[in-house]
Amino acid sequence: MNFVEELRWRGMLQDMMPGTEELLQKEQVTAYLGIDPTADSLHIGHLCGVMMLRHLQRCGHKPLALIGGATGMIGDPSGKSAERNLLTEDILRHNQACIGKQLAKFLDFESDAPNRAELVNNYDWMKDFSFLDFVRDVGKHITVNYMMAKESVKKRLNGEARDGLSFTEFTYQLLQAYDYLHLYQTKNCKLQMGGSDQWGNITTGAELIRRTLGKECYALICPLVTKADGGKFGKTESGNIWLDPRYTSPYKFYQFWMNVSDADAERYIKIFTSLPKEEIDALTAEHREAPHLRVLQKRLAYEVTVMVHSEADYDAAVEASGILFGGATSDALKRLDEDTLLAVFEGVPQFEVSRDVIAAGVKAVDLFVENAAVFPSKGEMRKLVQGGGVSLNKEKLSAPDQEITSADLLNDKYLLVQRGKKNYYLLIVK
Length: 430
Fold this sequence. Notes:
This protein is of the alpha/beta class. It has helices spanning 3-9, 20-26, 47-58, 89-103, 123-126, 131-137, 144-148, 151-160, 167-170, 172-187, 199-213, 250-258, 262-271, 277-289, 295-308, 311-325, 330-335, 338-344, 355-359, 364-371, 378-386; strands at 15-16, 30-35, 62-67, 118-121, 189-195, 218-222, 235-236, 239-240, 350-353, 362-363, 390-392, 395-396, 403-404, 414-419, 423-429. The strands form four sheets. Strands 1-6-5-2-3-4 form a six-stranded mixed β-sheet, sandwiched between helices. A five-stranded mixed β-sheet has the order 9-15-14-11-12. Strands 7-8 form a two-stranded antiparallel sheet. Strand 2, helix 3 (47-58) and strand 3 (62-67) form a beta-alpha-beta unit. Helix 12 packs across helix 16, helix 13 (262-271) packs parallel to helix 15 and helix 15 crosses helix 16 (311-325). The longest helix has 16 residues, at 172-187. The chain is elongated and about 85 Å long. The termini are far apart. The mean pLDDT is 90.
């Protein structure tokens, strides 16, 4: 497989230095991509870069995933309007271990293949570097004029940042340049990849190698992923979509991909899956014939959820979706863990009820009118129950006076009331 061609048809290639494609066709290339460990999980904003490494390995080349333990202590000004919080070494080490586990789902780190992936951390080679050694051995090769000409620096200096650009951040591109030089010398790494906001940092690295060693090396960047309407990809009202289920449940993760627009689904299925071109073209044609069936969104959500989580998590997410949007049974509802239950019914009206009320046993009509205002009056509730329009935990309520006890609670804490087809209410027992 031709790596550059693979990126090109997937819409994952924005620019590359001359000679990059020829190098990749001539030999097995070691290439790296940097990830700053500012949290102990990747989010889907990282996924495009991770998929670049995945495609690189599938095409027979060797990927290096660089965890920026040293650079993460500083913060990259590229694309940012404020300086990052600085992290301690203990936090960075923890974050690196967690990110390494996540990357193992995408890349082969374990086999004996000559192109098996490696995880490296720039803190390991920067921690013993004295300031005087750095300015003498690295700083003298790159002029301030060269660094000031970079777009990321110019933007911060031209008033896009409230507090200007600190010296700490200004040195970032030199530190990243040294990473490239170090990996060139120790791992024969001839290619650095990243998002388009990294072009300035990456080319500074190539320039440092050229000036210190007289050798040529290369750069390749992908476009920053956006939504079709120009909005920021991967952000929701509740924040980032994380790969770690502690921060974003598999259900919410699955729902994110299910809810992307048709135009975005056509782009994202190329970027975030490893499906071949012929299959994606066929899915796209099928989707355009009947957009209401959401063929692309369903396949995209399946591929990414299974890749990041598991087939079992995907099945659970589909089943959970059926509870809200389909005719799921009470058994399916009872199988939901608490996090998924709360994620599924996020945004529906919620009422708190005293545990004493439930423990003593209470008539449904009293509970849903007096203790929780699901119905405005007992008369209205009785009428709707008689017409079969009220359900408790996905089972039709047999009578308005049906007794509700602790045995009815989901996860020993919740009651789900459904009024009509679409109106849900969550009662939380405390």
